[in-house]
């Protein structure tokens, strides 16, 4: 997958549009302001100021004693502008006004017998003297004056108007052409029944149309000196310092800040692409699991972004120490409003380093249950069984109890409460429950399922079935499947499932009197019994005792499943069995052996056992002298240790 596709594979969001527009605005402003800038580094120094004529920067002047550079430049700019207006208004004046140099310790420039500038030692470039600098400024100003007077002639204005009309006509044609391309592309998308919502492509075409009109507008402004001056003033307003550092005597304008933002945005896009490449191509080749991939990618993104920002600011000539002072002052003011964001950010760092949860884990936090899709800087994406993505702040995972079924080992135990009616044979109940859950393919055979008698309920005997399974995400479906099997097995064994029962006791004095009266009437009318000896036999003086209840028989518990060792050994040596081959360790070769960790995984998969039970099976094979460590130095363990069968040694 290309990097650009990976970067924009998600649906378009307003934030992305804002960033793209911000980047375009940065290029627009910086591109127009570059001709008026004397250096590449950002930030304006108060030691120099530009000399400008008709919106064109001629050169820079420095401060002189009590006069600041800005005051000197303002006086010279006003004089040049006034001189141009005077000579342009006086059309009958012969020749073109020129600047003259008056030599001296500090040469001066004069225009029409008016003082214009004084060349100081600070104005002189390296390797020149003051007189050479004055002569160079003289030539520059004279060329600018001649060009300004030429641009104010009627013939030049007619040519400029014609060029402007041609530029507007060309812009209209380009605009219509781009619009035709847009409509044709959308028709083709509709004809092929593809997704027509491609915001990036549409935004690119719209930006191209905007760029055409901006370029034509800039071209027209450059043709006319009045428009060029107005454009310079507008762009210069963006370059005026809004952030002033008195310690450095330097200020930063809107353009400077946009340059920094644009470069940092470009850095973010590059780092984002590198981290996606690292996560999707490099780390999988190294066998890194998904959770560790996200942690490495995010930490790499933080480190590269931080280092890149520092490098960009240093290259642009920004003093990091001064920015830290400003940042600390701003941080103190907005810290209270951003404390939740900072808390979630720090929590995200802790989650990445401590790794209590990882991408792909099946967890429960509060009332939310789902799989962790992504751990971000501020929040974590949790996908539920309903395929709904829930955004959870990172601080919740540190402040609340989190149940992580996938942590360390995904093997878990499932509890299934089952109630049966009083009078049922508990031995048959246990047999039915064990039989109903033991044959499910997702229930592990080691450890075996268990049935616990919890007690006597109000209307039922309470049992609980305990089974082990390997996939926590499937616990709800597995629970439903097992309940279906349990209900069918209880019906097969004719075990009654109870329903709530209640005894009703009615107490009423009138009702009791009525019952006594009815009993008395029936007694009076009852027939007299005939006794042969005319004597009613007396009840025995001692009560007749019932036969004692039989002693309770112990309930037969189902025994642990017996392992057929010969069959297991045959499976281990079969085609779908262990990888048994000659292995080399250091300078030794061990023939016909297998790795202990691979054997544990194989036993877990084929015998439906947990890791603990797989180790127990392997150690049972060692006690039966079926397998052993190649050097007889280790028991059976889940490690990179070599084991082999005794039978293979006898064949050798």
UniProtKB/TrEMBL annotation:
Subcellular location(s) of the protein: Cell membrane
GO cellular component: plasma membrane
InterPro entries linked: DEP_dom (IPR000591), LSM_dom_sf (IPR010920), MS_channel_C (IPR049278), MscS-like_channel (IPR052702), MscS_beta-dom_sf (IPR023408), MscS_channel_2nd (IPR006685), MscS_channel_C_sf (IPR011066), MscS_channel_CS (IPR006686)
Alphabetic keyword roster: Cell membrane, Membrane, Transmembrane, Transmembrane helix
Membrane topology, as annotated: Multi-pass membrane protein
Keyword Membrane attached: yes
Residue intervals of the DEP domain: 574-647
Region of interest (Disordered), residue spans: 530-560
Compositionally biased tracts (Pro residues): 540-555
Regions that span the bilayer: 160-180, 200-220, 251-274, 295-316, 322-353
CDD domains reported for this sequence: DEP
GO BP term, pick one: intracellular signal transduction
Entry keyword annotation includes Lyase: no
Similarity remark: Belongs to the MscS (TC 1.A.23) family.
Name this protein carries in UniProt: Mechanosensitive ion channel
Originating organism: Acaryochloris marina (strain MBIC 11017)
Lineage, uppermost ranks: Bacteria, Bacillati, Cyanobacteriota, Cyanophyceae, Acaryochloridales
């Amino acid at each position: 997958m290309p990097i650009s596709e990976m970067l924009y594979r998600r649906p378009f969001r307003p934030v992305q549009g804002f960033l793209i527009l911000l980047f375009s605005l940065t290029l627009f402003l910086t591109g127009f302001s570059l001709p008026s800038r004397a250096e590449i580094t950002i930030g304006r120094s108060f030691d120099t100021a530009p000399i400008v004529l008709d919106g064109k920067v001629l050169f820079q002047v420095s401060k002189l004693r009590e006069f600041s550079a800005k005051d000197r430049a303002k006086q010279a700019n006003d004089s040049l502008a006034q001189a141009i207006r005077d000579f342009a208004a006086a059309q009958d004046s012969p020749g073109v006004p020129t600047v003259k140099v008056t030599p001296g310790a500090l040469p001066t420039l004069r225009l029409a017998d008016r003082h214009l500038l004084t060349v100081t030692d600070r104005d002189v470039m390296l390797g020149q003297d003051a007189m050479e600098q004055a002569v160079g400024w003289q030539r520059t100003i004279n060329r600018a004056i001649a060009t300004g007077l030429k641009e104010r002639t009627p013939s030049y204005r007619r040519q400029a108007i014609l060029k402007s009309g041609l530029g507007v006509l060309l812009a209209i044609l380009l605009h219509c052409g781009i619009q035709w391309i847009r409509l044709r592309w959308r028709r083709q998308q509709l004809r092929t029944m593809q997704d027509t919502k491609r915001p990036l492509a549409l935004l690119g075409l719209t930006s191209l149309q905007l760029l055409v009109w901006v370029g034509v507008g800039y071209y027209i402004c450059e043709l006319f000196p009045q428009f060029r001056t107005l454009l310079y003033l507008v762009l210069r307003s963006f370059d005026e310092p809004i952030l002033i550092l008195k310690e450095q005597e330097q200020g930063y304008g809107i353009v400077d800040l946009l340059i920094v933002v644009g470069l940092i945005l470009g850095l973010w896009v590059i780092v984002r692409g590198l981290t996606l490449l690292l996560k999707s191509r490099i780390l999988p080749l190294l066998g890194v699991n998904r959770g560790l991939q996200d942690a490495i990618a995010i930490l790499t993104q933080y480190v590269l972004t931080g280092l890149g920002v520092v490098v960009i600011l240093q290259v642009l000539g920004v003093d990091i120490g001064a920015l830290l002072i400003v940042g600390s002052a701003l941080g103190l003011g907005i810290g209270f409003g951003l404390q939740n964001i900072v808390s979630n950010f720090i929590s995200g760092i802790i989650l990445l380093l401590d790794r209590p949860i990882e991408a792909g884990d099946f967890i429960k936090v509060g009332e939310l249950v789902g799989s962790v899709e992504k751990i971000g800087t501020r929040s974590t994406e949790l996908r539920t069984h309903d395929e709904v993505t829930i955004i959870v702040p990172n601080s919740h995972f540190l402040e609340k109890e989190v149940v992580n079924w996938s942590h360390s080992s995904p093997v878990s135990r499932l509890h299934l409460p089952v109630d049966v009616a009083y009078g049922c044979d508990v031995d048959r109940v246990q047999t039915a429950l064990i039989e109903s859950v033991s044959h499910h393919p997702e229930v592990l055979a080691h450890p075996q399922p268990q049935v616990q008698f919890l007690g006597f309920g109000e209307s039922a005997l309470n049992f609980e079935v305990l089974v082990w399974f390997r996939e926590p995400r499937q616990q709800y479906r597995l629970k439903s499947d097992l309940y279906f099997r349990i209900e069918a097995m209880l019906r097969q064994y004719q075990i009654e499932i109870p329903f709530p029962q209640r005894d009703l006791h009615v107490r009423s004095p009138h009702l009791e009197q009525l019952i006594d009266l009815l009993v008395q009437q029936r007694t009076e009318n009852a027939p007299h019994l005939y006794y042969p000896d005319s004597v009613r036999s007396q009840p025995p003086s001692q009560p007749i005792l019932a036969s004692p209840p039989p002693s309770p028989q112990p309930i037969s518990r189902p025994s642990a499943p017996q392992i057929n060792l010969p069959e297991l050994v045959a499976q281990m040596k079969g085609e779908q069995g262990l990888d048994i081959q000659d292995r080399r360790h250091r300078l030794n070769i061990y023939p016909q052996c297998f790795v202990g960790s691979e054997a544990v995984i194989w036993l877990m998969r084929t015998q439906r056992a947990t890791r603990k039970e797989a180790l127990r099976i392997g150690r049972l094979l060692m006690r039966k002298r079926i397998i052993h460590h190649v050097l007889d130095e280790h028991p059976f363990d889940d490690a990179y240790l070599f084991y082999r069968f005794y039978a293979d040694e006898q064949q050798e």
